[in-house]
Design brief:
Length: 123
């Protein structure tokens, strides 16, 4: 069902010039990245050592800011496979992050947000 929807949508979208993608490793040796682009800023959220981190780029991924830990409870993020932090940015610029908690420490679904472009995250 998704295939026909995509094809029909593509027929009504104006033709765009798109650059060839560049493959790169997740910054700072992280795993399971989640990438969000909003108003020229590339946010990369990733898992590392049972924690979630956010880094950002203002030059299309050439350089990234130092990573900021997203989770305030250390070692509480399940990382691996499809698990890891997931992100989205709303129109007001708020960066929202969800992740699965480590099942050995109570699990659950965790949430935080940043209202300052990923520099700090609410507890």
């Amino acid at each position: 069902m998704i295939g026909p929807i995509v094809v029909c949508t593509a027929m009504f979208v104006p033709q765009l010039a798109v650059a060839e993608p560049t493959l790169m490793r997740t910054p700072f040796g992280g795993t399971v990245p989640s990438v969000v682009v909003f108003r020229g800023t590339v946010y990369v959220l990733f898992g590392k050592d049972s924690n979630a981190f956010c880094t950002q780029s203002h030059d299309y991924g050439i350089t990234f800011s130092p990573p900021v830990q997203v989770n305030h409870r250390p070692n509480s993020v399940t990382v691996g496979g499809e698990r890891g932090p997931k992100a989205l940015v709303t129109q007001d610029g708020t960066l929202h992050v969800l992740w699965l908690g480590d099942y050995r420490k109570g699990g659950g679904v965790w949430y935080t947000r940043s209202r300052d472009n990923g520099r700090t995250f609410e507890p």
